Amino acid sequence: MPAERTPVDPWAGAEREDRRPPQTWDSYIADSDVDDPYRRSDILVESHTDPTGWKASGPAQPPIPDDRPPAEAVSGNRLLTVLLFFSGLATSVSLWLFDTQAGAINDTATAMLAAGRITGLIGGYLLFIQLLMMSRVSWLEEWVGARDLLRWHRWLGTSLVMFVLAHIVFIVYGYALTADTGVVDQGWSIITTFPDMLKATAATIILVVISLLSIRGARAKLPYELWHLIHLTGYLVLLLGYGHQVATGADLSGKFASVFWPGLTALVISALVWGRLVEPLWLNVRHRFEVAEVVAEGANTFSIYIDGKKLEKLPAQAGQFMRWRFLTRNGWWQSHPFSLSAAPNREWLRLTVTAVGGHTSRLGMMQPGTPVWAEGPFGTFTAQRRTRRRALLIAGGSGIAPIRALLEDMPPDTIVIYRASRPDELVFRGELEELAERRDAWVRYIVGSRNDPGPRRLFSPDGLLGLVPDVSRRDVYLCGPPGLVEAAVATLRELDVPDSQLHLDPFEF
Known about the structure:
This protein is of the alpha/beta class and 509 residues long. A 7-stranded mixed beta sheet has the order 2-1-11-10-9-12-13, with helices on both faces. Strands 3-4-7 form a 3-stranded antiparallel beta sheet. A 3-stranded antiparallel beta sheet has the order 6-5-8. The chain is elongated. The chain starts with 24 loop residues before the first helix and ends in a 5-residue tail after the last strand.
């Protein structure tokens, strides 16, 4: 798209003249033809006299809505997914059971070897499931949901490491008892004499390193690019460990096992090829993304407008994110997840970035025409996941990007709560106000440090009820730093908001 081309305003009606929404608060006020451009928004502070506990100089609080029946729930069938998972797990363990004769376990050594084989089978199965969840195939995320996939991925990752280490301990100890040798000597003998054991040892080391670096404290200290690169070495665990499983795994070569394990392998490899290669290649060949323009939004924040072919056919929704690789000289090798900050339209896509490092800072200096490689869209943080007729959107910091986009698809009487440390960190004020007017919504800003009275009150039961009296009858969408999301979820559960009404898009790798 030529640099001088002005993108069409996706939220404007057909009768309005096409124009890009105001990019800053000041420009919005200057262009507005009314005295108070923020009729549906206000910066709130704590009040000891107002019954709600909040003081605002703007309009009255929105009316408490009625109890109309909820909309039909749209969610992945978690129960069926869990049943399929445990069915596969039981099948993998039963391979040992069917292959073991009665009376085969008759002393400590055979008991240790049996425990080693069982934990090895469980570890191998969990590894396949982990790789399946890393495949990025769109059908899996739509079926399960991004939140559950992330949660299960972490839980299974920890379980995988525990079972693999238990497998090693039991096997080495069992063989040491059988051979009447020391544990260390037996372990070294296994590594140096058993087929493919050196590769299996390397796979175990990689697995442990990935697990340690996935701890939140360690992950927060690593650059995203380095963490992501190390995480991708998880594929090597399968490549290096598979030979050991086939060469020495007695329970992988039986009549039924010779069908189960190759079938599981084929499923996982097919998903990886489809999700990591075929889908991204088709997406980029069809749409040919490139940078149209980079626009400053506020303190260390800017928006990147993306042009492309046939954007009306892009299967993206407001609230979703994509992985973006900008093909510049210094950044072509880095891929980052950024949410869409406006609902997709046929003319352009927009993502909004807060500069927090060298790579994100350089993105603000890109020139129009820079080629872009994208993957996705991902995420179920969409309006289609609503289970109630009204919604509450809570954003913290740059989490306003997907919340801003979601507001375009939300029903009347939606309430937006936007948390920021300073007033100059509030972005999209003009757009939020315009959307609030058009969609009969309300926007509330909570500004200040975490120790200020207003922010402290926000995620207390009384404080949140003062802002949203009917919060338990709303879908709640949360996006922001982990601390904000955790505090909000804890408060919402105190207010008896069901988990089915909570939709999270936390800032996680």
